[in-house]
Recover the amino acids of this structure.
């Protein structure tokens, strides 16, 4: 008896579903691509519970008559390829005839469709059961509703992520479809809440603004190249807009979202002088390439493709991006320190006169004699003898009488570095309370000179201000027990994916 047998269609569809339908976002991608191929101008996507509850895709495309509505559930049934020649010049998104049978093999599907002339048709599909076909209200277009995804494949259902993660993937898929087809109006609803809606006016920049917000849209540069066999156009962001992953490097081939290692490397190479290591730009570029130079029949999901002139396209892409960025000043260019230049620049005494700041005391210290040099600091020419004594004003044994009484003579002893550090970090007798001191003046606009009981203090006023602000902030946060509140409100512009990625705990923190 022969051991090799032909698989039942139901089993073959179940196996094929494992390749084509990986998660709820895969279902949406396949159904929306069918809507686009049907010429839809408005597409609605509704999802509940991360796609595990239900998925609805509604369009105003050409629709199907009763016969086509029945045949579309058959494996390898397609209206897009009829011969081997068609396979070499594919311009549609779908062509394999595997998507809908694969979806129907792992879920419950209901289809309602109608053409402009004919009556409406409803088809209900369940795995291992005959199709139920009946009349339905006539409305041009197609509605697909998918429920109970992976109900009959427990292993696949078990390894689905949380609703939040699956929703994130759905939003990302819908964003890519919207950016690839700005001439189609997309509206996405998650659990009856609108996530985004595009106008369908064909303006890619407007579509980016709707999805990613004003901050991204205002930071874009247009990029365009026209060649004989291929062309490309789109937008690249200023280097200030960068990410830790490559997810926002969006490349489209004839409006289909694709991944190309060589094209990504060309983009990264053009940005390498403008971004830190392991940071990646925002890019949205569509490549229009003759279909005879492209092989999309490589993977069931059609994410990976083969392009004949990929090296040439990558070279032109890098040149165009580099040219665009070179006309703008990179943000990671090392700036010169103006203070360092000032230190090396000659100056005039007249300039110093204008910047002179007088330090006045309310009361002259009776223990200190008046300065003999007051009023002559910035004279144009000061004879040395007038400003300073040609000989020492006092000998080593004749200190100013008023100061001599306040100077403590320290005997010369052997003092090692270890002794010094031990004295600095010794905690004995240390107090957080500042000693009483009286300000005498300011030096170089930086230091405050104060007089204490038995010594002088030199205070870095910038460091002192930082310490005061730190202690004020510390006291403020010590009074807040319930939650952390920023000193100043922060306004964040989040994309739909970023909003969905915030869990309840983070949302509560940001309220």
């Amino acid at each position: 008896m022969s051991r090799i047998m032909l698989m039942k269609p139901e089993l073959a569809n179940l196996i094929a579903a494992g390749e084509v339908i990986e998660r709820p976002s895969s279902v949406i991608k396949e159904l929306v691509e069918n809507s686009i191929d049907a010429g839809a101008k408005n597409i609605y996507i509704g999802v509940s519970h991360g796609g595990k509850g239900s998925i609805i895709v509604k369009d105003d495309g050409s629709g199907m008559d009763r016969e086509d509505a029945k045949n579309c559930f058959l494996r390898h049934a397609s209206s897009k390829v009829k011969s081997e020649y068609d396979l070499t010049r594919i311009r549609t998104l779908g062509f394999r005839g595997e998507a809908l049978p694969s979806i129907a093999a792992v879920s419950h599907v209901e289809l309602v469709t109608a053409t402009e002339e004919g009556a409406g048709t409803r088809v209900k599909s369940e795995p291992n059961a005959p199709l139920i076909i009946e009349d339905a209200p006539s409305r041009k277009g197609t509605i697909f509703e998918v429920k109970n995804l992976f109900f009959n494949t427990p292993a696949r259902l078990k390894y689905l992520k949380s609703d939040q993660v699956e929703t994130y993937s759905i939003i990302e898929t819908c964003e890519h479809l919207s950016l690839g087809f700005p001439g189609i109006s997309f509206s996405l609803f998650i659990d009856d809440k609108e996530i985004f809606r595009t106008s369908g006016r064909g303006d890619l920049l407007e579509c980016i603004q709707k999805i990613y917000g004003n901050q991204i849209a205002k930071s874009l540069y247009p990029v365009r190249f026209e060649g004989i066999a291929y062309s490309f156009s789109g937008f690249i962001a200023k280097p200030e807009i960068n990410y830790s992953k490559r997810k926002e490097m969006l490349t489209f081939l004839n409006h289909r979202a694709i991944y190309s290692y060589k094209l990504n490397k060309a983009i990264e190479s053009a940005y390498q002088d403008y971004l830190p290591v392991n940071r990646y730009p925002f890019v949205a570029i569509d490549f229009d390439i003759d279909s005879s130079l492209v092989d999309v029949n490589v993977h069931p999901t059609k994410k990976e493709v083969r392009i004949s002139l990929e090296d040439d396209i990558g070279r032109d892409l890098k040149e165009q991006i580099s040219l665009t960025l070179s006309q703008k000043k990179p943000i990671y260019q090392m700036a010169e320190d103006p203070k360092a230049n000032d230190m090396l620049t000659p100056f005039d005494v007249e300039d110093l006169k204008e910047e002179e700041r007088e330090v006045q005391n309310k009361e002259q210290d009776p223990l200190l004699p008046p300065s003999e040099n007051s009023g002559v600091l910035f004279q144009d020419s000061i004879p040395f003898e007038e400003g300073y004594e040609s000989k020492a004003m006092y000998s080593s044994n004749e200190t100013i009488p008023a100061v001599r009484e306040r100077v403590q003579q320290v005997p010369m002893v052997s003092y090692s570095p270890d002794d010094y550090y031990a004295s600095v970090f010794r905690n004995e007798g240390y107090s957080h309370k500042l000693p009483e001191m009286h300000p005498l003046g300011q030096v170089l606009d930086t230091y405050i000179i104060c007089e204490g009981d038995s010594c002088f203090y030199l205070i870095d006023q910038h460091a002192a201000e930082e310490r005061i602000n730190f202690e004020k902030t510390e006291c403020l946060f010590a009074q807040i027990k319930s939650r952390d509140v920023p000193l100043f409100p922060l306004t964040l512009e989040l994309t739909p994916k970023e909003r969905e990625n915030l869990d309840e705990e983070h949302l509560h923190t940001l309220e």
Q: What stands out?
A: Confidence is low (pLDDT under 50) at residues 329-349, 355-362, 371-400, 402-415. The first strand starts at residue 42 and ends at 48. The domain at 1-202 is CATH 3.30.565.10 (Heat Shock Protein 90). The chain is about 35% helix and 20% strand.
